[in-house]
Amino acid sequence: MIYLIKFIYSFVLPPGLFVVLLLLLVLWLWKRQRKPAVALLAITLLFYLSATQLVSHALIGSLEKRYPQPSEVQGDVIVVLGGGATSSTPDIDGEGNLSGAAANRLLVAVRLHRSTGLPILFSGGQVFSDTGNEANIAKRQLLGLGVPEEAILVENRSLNTEQNAVNTAELLKEKGYDSPVLVTSAFHMPRSVLEFKQAGVKVQPYPADYWTNGRFAFYPGRLAPNAESVQITGLALKEYLGLLAARIL
Q1: Which of 9, 74, 88, 158 has the greatest number of C-beta atoms within 10 Å?
Q2: What CATH number corresponds to the domain at position 164?
Q3: The domain containing residue 3 runs over which residues?
Q4: Is the pLDDT of residue 1 over 80?
Q5: Are residue 82 and residue 13 in the same domain, yes or no?
Q6: What is the DSSP string of the chain?
């Protein structure tokens, strides 16, 4: 019963509420203007599907599966890509925090550092005027997690993945590293590997921050529209477009 309630409840709040309203508009148009009603129905179904876990996880899962997590790390430095940060938000030892994706990547990097002793290079700048500088925040948090300062490198100028690759490549060359272990979100790894390759750097991919489960299971809740699935669909489409742009530009 609780799952049925959850399914029905998903149509009470956005985006499910918008699906219901659009369907009501389709019904109203159907007897008046059939062609616009059919077009609106197609758009509504597309929007509904993009808001379901079934579709969003299929889209992002195909990206996450391209690079399996290696059982053994082979490299001389751990490179972590930023993924957003807030400024002027309270933290234990200062202000500013990494966003969820960036924090997950940082956590994996710290665990790799403790198991391998490799230094950590964090790449990411201040993308918008009201966001935090990712690399600077990451350095403070790494120090707070017990990583020694001599094992931390920062590249704090990059505003996108292409700049991450180019600016990190310069810093790696300057510091004498040539076998980086790349840590970023699993869905972001295919584009990141391509950008680093085009920047002349071969990396060992070490994906983190997964959205999908390793084993698929179908249940009615996967067909319930929700805001998180809209976000995941958007992330996946952004990566596909980014991969296309990286290949043709």
Answers
A1: 158
A2: 3.40.50.620
A3: 1-51
A4: no
A5: no
A6: -HHHHHHHHTTTSTTHHHHHHHHHHHHHHHTT-HHHHHHHHHHHHHHHHHTBHHHHHHHHHHHHTSSPPPSS---SEEEEE---EEEEEEETTEEEEE-HHHHHHHHHHHHHHHHH---EEEE----STTB--HHHHHHHHHHHTT--GGGEEEE----SHHHHHHHHHHHHHHHT---EEEEEEGGGHHHHHHHHHHTT---EEEEE---S-SS----GGGGSB-HHHHHHHHHHHHHHHHHHHHHH-
